[in-house]
Design brief:
The complex is a heterodimer of chains A (111) and B (111).
Chain A lengths: L8 E5 L4 E6 L8 E7 L6 E6 L4 E2 L4 E4 L5 E6 L8 E8 L13 E6 L1
Parallel strand pairs in A: 1-9
Antiparallel strand pairs in A: 2-7, 3-4, 3-8, 5-6, 6-7, 8-9
Chain B lengths: L3 E4 L2 E4 L5 E7 L5 E8 L3 E10 L2 E4 L6 E7 L2 E6 L8 E8 L5 E3 L3 E5 L1
Parallel strand pairs in B: 2-11
Antiparallel strand pairs in B: 1-3, 3-8, 4-5, 4-9, 5-6, 7-8, 9-10, 9-11
Classes of the chains: A mainly beta (111), B mainly beta (111).
Chain lengths: 111, 111
């Protein structure tokens, strides 16, 4: 799996958009970008994933650059409950089933 | 949420004793994972399984063994627990090229 680089921490004001960057400059053509988050003491939770196109679901939007070397997870209207560690993972899935996590970004949403 | 149950949820054990943690899933997912999480280290992969009786080592496998005799159960065994294995352990499952689902974690304390 390609390695990812994320800032260790970020702050965001409640109600504002939170934009979490991830660098994956060594990503391969068949590798997906996955985002998970972990709220204190709980098991990680899947948020969204994408290959090339931008994706949106009820939780977030994922913007992947054209060269696929970086991506941004967008929480459009952050709430206090979005305070968590966010993990960006690159994985090809399928036969590449090994799933490794980095240290992620601690997002703190402030009132 | 996927049906993943970890047991026990909390355990205190003495150094040198064997310990087995159980992960049970009802989703018929092919892939299962065991992670440990310690302050400052994020999630680290211990072992993973890509089918019944098919397992492989992760990045921190020393001192741990696993077994998967049925699709639904993935057991993690500490043959002789040490204080360095005090941690929170998470199990995860994955159906294929899809998102992973995590259990709620097992907090293990070795005294």
């Amino acid at each position: 799996d390609a390695k990812t680089t994320q800032p260790p921490s970020m702050d965001c004001a409640e109600g504002r958009a939170a934009n979490l960057p991830c660098n994956h400059s060594t990503i391969s053509g068949n590798e997906y970008v996955y985002w998970y988050r972990q709220i204190h003491s709980q098991g990680p939770q899947y948020i969204i994933h994408g290959l090339k196109n931008n994706e949106t679901n009820e939780m977030a939007s994922l913007i992947i650059t054209e060269d696929r070397k970086s991506s941004t997870l967008i929480l459009p209207h952050a709430t206090l409950r979005d305070t968590a560690v966010y993990y960006c993972i690159v994985n090809s899935g399928g036969s590449n089933y090994k799933l490794t996590f980095g240290k992620g970004t601690l997002l703190t949403v402030n009132p | 949420d996927a049906g993943i149950t970890q047991s026990p949820r909390h355990k205190v054990t003495e150094t040198g004793t064997p310990v087995t943690l159980r992960c049970h899933q009802t989703e018929n997912h092919r892939y299962m994972y065991w992670y440990r999480q310690d302050p400052g280290h994020g999630l680290r992969l211990i072992h993973y399984s890509y089918g019944v009786k098919d397992t492989d080592k992760g990045e921190v496998s020393d001192g741990y063994s696993v077994s998967r005799s049925k699709t639904e159960d993935f057991l993690l065994t500490l043959e002789s627990a040490t204080s360095s294995q005090t941690s929170v352990y998470f199990c995860a499952t994955r159906g294929g090229n899809t998102e992973a689902f995590f259990g709620q974690g097992t907090r293990l304390t070795v005294v």
